[in-house]
Amino acid sequence: MDAKLQYLLRLGDNALVLSQRLSELCGKGPALEEDMALTNVALDLLGQARMWLTYAGELEGRGRDEDALAYLRDAHDFHNALLVEQPNGNYAHTMMRQFYFDTWHYFLIGALVQSSDARIAEIAEKSLKEVTYHLRRSGDLVVRLGDGTATSHAYMQTAADELWMYTGELFMEDDVDAQMIAAGVAPAAAGLRTQWLAHVADIFAEATLTMPAPDAWMQKGGKQGRHSEHLGYLLAEMQFLQRAYPGAQW
Amino acid sequence: MNALLVDEATVWSWLAEVPDPEIPVISVVDLGIVRGVAVQGGDAVTVTITPTYSGCPAMQVIESAVREALHRRGVEHVHVATRLSPAWTTDWMSESGKAKLTGYGIAPPAQTVQLHGSLAAAVARRASLAPTVACPHCGSTHTEMTSQFGSTPCKALYRCLACREPFDYFKCH
C-alpha cells in the first residue's frame, strides 16, 4: 500500500476510533458539562476523521469514500494506535487516555501545518485550534483530578501507569513514517517525543502525579493493523448498521 | 433564452439573508462562513464557504440553504465549494453580527484570536484563562464560565453574577 495512503489512514483512524470511544459516553458523562465536553471533542474528531479519510479515499482511487472506509473495513485494516481503542474504563482512564492522545495529537497537528503536502497542511490548519482546545481541557482536568482528593489522585496515578505502555507506539517510526518524514510530509518522531514528554512532565508535576519511566516496555502494532481485542467490539457496534443494511441512509 | 444576469454584490446581499441554522438571528455572511462569490456567465454562481468547526453538523444544512437561496432567485447553476484554508476564525464575524448576537442573548467573542509564540506556550495552563465576558442581558462583566462547552461546538456556558442569568458565550476560535 502507498505510504501516504497508509499515513492518512493512521491519521483518520486515530480520530475516528477515539471519536467512537468518546461517543459511547454520550448521555453517560459523570456531570453535565463533562458529558457535553466529551461529545464535543468526539464531534471535532469525527469531522477531522472525515477530512483525512476523504483524502485517503481519493488518493486510493478505488472509489471508496470516507463512509466506505469507516464502515466497511475490518479490524486488521484499521491503522489507529492501540491507545485510542482502549476501553473508557473509569473516568480517570478516559481522561488520561485523552490527555496522552491530545498531547501527541496537538504537537503532531501543529507540525503538519508545515507539511509538504498542501492538502494535509490545510486539514491540519483547520484542526489545530480544535486540538489546542482539547489539550487545554484534558491537561486542566488531569491537574484538577491528580491534585484533587487522595481518592482522585490514586485513580489518576493508576490510570497514568496502566495506559503508559500504549504511548510508546506513537513515536515508533516504521517504514511508512520514514518515507513520510523523508518527503517532508510528516515531522520526525524523535522531535514529537521530546515535546510530548516535556508537556506530560509539566502537567504531571502540577498534578502531583509521578510520570512513569520513558524507557519502559511499550506495546506496539496498532499502526500496522495488529490490534487488541477491544477494536473488534468497537467496530462491531460502529459498523453494525452498514453491515446489516448496506447503503442505508438517513 | 432567459439568461439571468446577476452580479456578485447582488449574490452577497442574498446570502446576507441566509440564516445560520443553529443561531438564526445571524446570517452566514455575518458569521464569516462565506469566503467568496464568483459569477460565471451570468447564470452560474460558485459560492465558497468554510467550515466553522471540523465536525459542525450545520455545514450541510448551510450548504443546502445557500443553494436554495440562489435557486429561488432564478440562478440555475449553483456550485458550493468548501475551502479549509485559511481556517475560519471568529475574527471574521461582522460587527453587526456581534450586535445581533448580543440582542439575541448570546455574548459575542470577547477578544480577537490570541497568537502564542510557540506550540508549547499555547497549551500551558496559564494560557487557558477564560476572557472577561460581558453579560448580554445586563452588560455586567461580573460573570463566570460554568462550562467550556455548550449546546453547540462554538459556544460555552456562562453565568452573570450581577443579574444571576445564565447565558451562552460564542467562543473565540
Outline the structure in words.
Chain B: Pfam families: FeS_assembly_P, Zn_ribbon_PaaD. The complex is a heterodimer of chains A (250) and B (173). With 250 residues, chain A is mainly α. Chain A has a single domain, classed as Ferritin, core subunit, four-helix bundle (Ferritin, Up-down Bundle), CATH 1.20.1260. Helix content of chain A is 66%, strand content 0%. In chain A, helix 1 crosses helix 8. The two termini of chain A are 33 Å apart. The mean pLDDT of chain A is 97. Chain B is built from four helices and seven strands. Chain B has a four-stranded mixed beta sheet. In chain B, strands 1-2-3 form a three-stranded mixed beta sheet, with helices on one face. The mean pLDDT of chain B is 90. The chains are: A mainly alpha (250), B alpha/beta (173).
Q: How many separate domains make up the residues of chain A?
A: 1
Give start-end ranges of low-pLDDT stretches of chain B: none
The percent range for strand residues of chain A is under 5%
Note the overall shape of chain A.
globular
Sheet with the most strands of chain A? none
What CATH calls the topology of chain A is Ferritin
Strand tally of chain B is 7
N-to-C series of helices and strands of chain A? HHHHHHHHHH
Order of SSEs of chain B, N→C? HEEHEHEHEEE
CATH architecture of chain A: Up-down Bundle
What is the residue-mean pLDDT of chain A, rounded to a whole number?
97
Which class best fits the helix and strand makeup of chain B? Answer: alpha/beta
Structural class estimated from helices and strands of chain A: mainly alpha
